[in-house]
Structures are given as C-alpha cells and as structure tokens.
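Example record

The entry below shows one chain as it appears in the dataset: sequence first, then structure tokens.
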Amino acid sequence: MKTLKDMISTLDVQQVQDDQNVSIQDITADSRAVKPNSLFIALDGATVDGHNYIDKAVAAGAVAVIVSKPVTVPDDVCVITVSDTRQAMMACVPYFFDYPANRMRMVGVTGTNGKTTTTHMIRHILKAQGHKVGVIGTVHIMIGDTSYPIHNTTPDVVDLQHILHQMVQENVEYCVMEVSSHALALGRVSGVEFDTAVFTNLTQDHLDFHKTFENYLAAKCKLFEQVSAADQVKNNKGAVINIDDSYGHRVMEKTTAPKITYSPLGKGTLNASDVHMCNKNS
C-alpha cells in the first residue's frame, strides 16, 4: 500500500486535481481488474483508449486516475494528468510493488528460438543447487513447483510486477524469464534489473512489428545494454552469449558486463562436445 502522494513523486506530472493523501491499495490499467481504493491508469492504445473506461473504473472503486486527456469524474476522485500515461505506468508500477526484481536474482533469456527450453534448463540447474526458482515464459509461470497460466511471453508492466512481487512473497531466490523483443521495445520490463542476460540466437522473425531486422536486433540488445548500465542497484552482472550465432558478436558489443560465450564448435568460453539429445526419462 502506498499513498497517492508517494506515487505521484515518481511521475512527471502536469496537474493534480483533488486529495493526494488517499491510500492506494492496488494499481491497474485494466478497468475490469479495478478493486476498491485502486489507482487506474488510462492507457491510450492503438485500438483501445483507457480514458473511455474511467467511469467503469471509478464505479468499481478507483479513487485516483492517471490520464493524458481531460476527463470528468466525481469530486472525490483524484485526477493526475501526465503527458504520456504509458511512461507514467512504467515509472510508478514498479515503485508501487517495491521493485521486487531487486530482491531476487533475475536471469533474462532472449533470442528467436530456444528461450523456453533454456529457461527450464536454467531452472533445473538452480533447483538442483537448492534454490527456489521462479519461471516466466511462453508456456506458463512457475513459482517453485506451482504452475500458473500466462497470456504473453513477457507480461505487461502491471502483471509482471505483480508476478515478481508474488515470487518475493513466496521466497523465490532466482527468477528465470523469457524476454521477448516486443517486451524490450515496449518497455514491459521497466523497473526490472536483470543480473544475467542470455542470448540464444537470432533469425528473421517479428518484422511485422519491428519493420526491419536491425530494429529487431536492437530490441534484443536492450537486455544486454541494461545489465551494464550505470544506474544499477545490484552487483555481479553478466552475459551469456551463443557465439556461433552470426549475430553473437553484435550482441557482445552491446554490454560491458563480464561475458561467457558458449559453442559446440570450439569457439566459446564454454564448449560443448559429445552432445546427445534424449527425453527426460532416458
């Protein structure tokens, strides 16, 4: 729980209308998920404008709204006006949940193929070492040995921070997460400080969204730029990169964090040999 005044301190606010001292007990950009004493963020998306759902959010119990357009609400609802509600969401949601990623070791896995397999291999290794592990990926979310459904490879900011908060509450030590190029480009992982970035490979994909292959590569590289950024809270960062991939060297150039490269062709820091594929029961 946070006071609205605390939440506002994270934002670049143009105007605040009404009481800032109200307590906020939940935060969402989905009017269907509003609970009493919620802060509702009105996102202006490509197909849906959250400003059209403010009445529904207020009726469900929202006591404050973040908007970028003029709105009419009851006198007891606080209106926070910003220039960009999506940027506001990226700033205030991680703060509301007390930056849960900072209380775990975060492993981000990106690449066109192999993300799901890689995250589960990492989970298996960490679990074998006695750690409690969470997984966020295409197939499901796992907290320890409990599985939950998922709707996007990387959830949006609100859902992701809520999941990470739940992991912290359940004493997860490591979170291994698939990080899609969409998530990196759209800022879904805002407020998440990764400790290790893993690159599997890169092939032609998602160009309907990224438009060019260079944009696609640049989105993937954001994860590796982040692990060596100057404004980090945690120490002992690193990157693990498939050096056999034709874009592995491009990815390596994007981070100054300590790097491990891997290869079955003898080119890496770690080299695989005598590789056999089998199912888990073999």
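Notes for this example: The first strand starts at residue 2 and ends at 3. The chain has nine helices and 16 strands.
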